[in-house]
Design brief:
Blueprint (H helix, E strand, L loop, with lengths): L6 E7 L2 E7 L3 E6 L9 E5 L3 E6 L1 E3 L5 E3 L4 E11 L6 E11 L3 H18 L6 E6 L8 H15 L3 E6 L5 H8 L7 E6 L1 H19 L16 E6 L5 H7 L4 H10 L2 E10 L2 E6 L2 E5 H9 L8 H13 L3 E9 L18 H10 L11 H8 L7 E13 L23 E7 L3 H10 L12 E12 L5 H27 L2 H28 L9 E3 L2 E3 L4 E12 L7 H13 L4 E3 L2
Parallel strand pairs: 4-24, 10-11, 10-12, 12-13
Antiparallel strand pairs: 1-2, 2-3, 3-4, 5-8, 6-7, 8-9, 14-15, 14-23, 16-18, 16-21, 17-18, 17-20, 18-19, 19-20, 20-23, 21-22
Helix pairs in contact: 2-6, 3-4, 7-8, 8-13
């Protein structure tokens, strides 16, 4: 119930008079000169007001200001459905109000700004921004300066911008430089850029806490700085799975308005940290596709389709031992048909469970992992056999091609991951499993597929397989070194060096393409081991240990909003002939 009335008066929008009311939580304006049945009311939550400016102001596509004494402009979040995505597009709504006097204009702007500070105290004030100018279509700079920076300025956010010149520059900066005064870090790029920021912030936090992050048993300290993503890469899976759309304006508005916690999976080998992951850690098919695609980087994004086809036709499966620590099945299930949307009840209850004595997820983080460390070995479940693929994901891992993702009911911040086991099966059956990722059919409703909600996973090779690993790992390391060299040239080398490198690689790959296809399709001997695909990076180890760290970082995002619910609400409103438009 809204009893905190702040301000009420008659205002003009264009040539129409409205009765405007500012309460503690909402700004509303209703047409004043029409009969009650025909009156139109617009209601905007104060928490979704982006900014208030004196005069008649426009921000996008270009900023323009008409300084008038009696006018002010309110900017807020507007939503619309996207035909190609599950989530909702956010855009910048704008309404210009005219007042009878300058005194009343100043009253309105002051009250609105005070309400913003009161109801949105956790909005960022200063951000460190990293732009990858080489990612995706190489439009990172343009996207930030033309679409994002004006929104940050409107919201009163100052930013320090760094355009990266080499791989891992963002990670190294976060590990070594002074970060005092920043509320968060924003990456303008793709999943690779996000991974750099993730590793840098987690590593910096553990350094300052005096913790050894390479120890798989250590209790990691949550990161105080939040992470924001502006999609501008060739792959933006993390953005898609947390916001629901690939749209720089939507992501910028999410950064301004809200944040939410995010689980992180640490991947270890022989008690040493290998990488952190928030999306996919995949062995078998997904690892083979990534490894194959590294041989054909000259093809651009098409290399993934080509490599997927080659790997599928190779009809491979791999022996392995999978051990996992199940999560509490009473809390949630990967088969319960729920989706992790904005305001998710499962994640909210998990926050209370992980940090029961505080609203600050950082202060009592050890309580969660004291429970983890007391888990007895008897609770681990072990399975052995031949697998088409083994996947671990901390989120749905949805993307444009797979709108529901690898695990549609996975949660962003419940302290668990989903383990997906696809046993060796007929090629056509495996094709059915892959195809279901592109539709709304249940990919887990197949006899050769298992899915488990877990807190930790171990993967090892059966006895006698270890010696066969070394040859494959050596070849893999050479491929990784070659790719890193090309990445270095593309970021630091001259155009002549880059062109020469590309030509040489194209010539080499043209000669290898036919042989590669024939080898993949005709070789009778299946490779002894696959490789791990960790958020798009190849891991040079086969036997790994994965552990889920609940709510280790916070992401500047509200979460995916349910577009279907919005549509149903609109249909119900039309049915009841309602004239109220609520932007919330």
């Amino acid at each position: 119930m809204e009893t905190d009335l702040r301000l009420e008066s008659s205002l003009w929008i264009g040539n129409k008079r409205y009765r405007a009311v500012l309460t503690g939580w909402h700004l509303k304006w209703t047409e004043a000169d029409k009969k009650n049945g025909d009156k139109k009311t617009v209601s905007v939550p104060v928490a979704e007001v982006v900014g208030v400016e004196n005069g008649r102001v426009e921000i996008l596509p270009q900023k323009s200001v008409e300084d008038t004494d009696k006018d002010f402009t309110v900017f807020y979040i507007k939503r619309s459905r996207s035909r190609s995505t599950y989530g909702l597009l956010w855009s910048l709504g704008r309404t210009q109000f005219s007042c009878p006097s300058r005194v009343l204009r100043d009253q309105w702007t002051n009250h609105l700004r005070t309400a913003l500070k009161t109801h949105s105290p956790l909005r960022p004030h200063r951000l460190l921004v990293f732009i990858n100018p080489f990612g995706g279509k190489k439009k990172g700079r343009e996207i930030y300066h033309s679409l994002v920076a004006p929104l940050f300025e409107l919201a009163g956010i100052s930013s320090h911008v760094i355009v990266t010149e080499r791989a891992n520059q963002a990670r190294d900066h976060l590990l070594k430089k002074d970060l005092t005064g920043f509320d968060g870090v924003v990456c303008v790029g793709g999943d690779g850029m996000f991974s750099e920021v993730l590793h840098g912030l987690i590593g910096r936090t553990q350094q300052e806490a005096g913790l050894c992050e390479t120890d798989p048993a250590v209790t990691l300290q949550p990161c105080p700085l939040h992470i924001g993503i502006i999609p501008a890469g060739s792959t933006d899976c993390v953005c898609y799975a947390t916001v629901g759309v690939i749209d720089p304006v939507s992501s910028a508005l999410h950064i301004i308005i809200d944040s939410q916690p995010l689980d992180v999976c640490s991947v270890h080998h022989a008690s040493t940290l290998v990488r952190y992951s928030v999306s996919l850690v995949g062995y078998g098919f997904y690892g083979d596709v990534l490894a194959e695609s590294e041989k054909h980087r000259w093809m651009g994004p098409l290399r993934y389709d080509y490599s997927g086809t080659v790997v599928y036709l190779s009809n491979r499966s791999y022996a392995g031992i999978v051990q996992y620590l199940p999560a509490d099945p009473l809390l949630s299930s990967p088969k319960d048909k729920t989706r992790c949307l904005s305001g998710c009840n499962v994640c909210s209850r998990s926050t209370e469970r992980l940090f029961p004595h505080t609203s600050d997820s950082g202060s009592l983080y050890s309580s969660h992992f004291s429970q983890y460390s007391n888990d007895s070995e008897g609770e681990w479940v072990s399975v052995e056999g031949r697998f088409r693929c083994v996947s671990i994901t901390c989120m749905s891992s949805s993307c444009a091609r797979s709108p529901l993702g690898l695990s549609p009911s996975a949660h962003l911040a419940d302290g668990t991951g989903d383990l997906i086991l696809v046993w060796d099966t007929h090629p056509l059956s495996f094709l059915k499993f892959l195809y279901r990722h592109t539709s709304t059919q249940d990919q887990f409703d197949l006899p050769f597929v298992e899915v488990h909600r877990v807190k930790a996973v171990r993967f090892s090779l059966p006895d006698g397989r270890e010696e066969e690993v070394h040859e494959g790992i050596g070849e893999l390391n050479r491929a990784i070194e070659e790719r890193e060299y090309v990445d270095t040239v593309s970021r630091n080398g001259s155009q002549q060096q880059l062109a020469q490198s590309v030509v040489e690689r194209e010539t080499m790959n043209e000669h290898k393409t036919v042989a590669s296809i024939l080898c993949g399709l005709c070789c009778k001997k299946t490779p002894a081991v696959s490789v791990w695909n960790c958020d798009g990076e190849i891991l040079p180890f086969t036997e790994i240990f994965c552990r889920i760290h609940g709510q280790l970082v916070r992401l500047y995002a509200r979460g995916i909003e349910d577009g279907a619910a919005m549509q149903n609400c609109s249909q119900e409103s039309d049915k009841n002939k309602s004239r109220c438009i609520t932007y919330k």
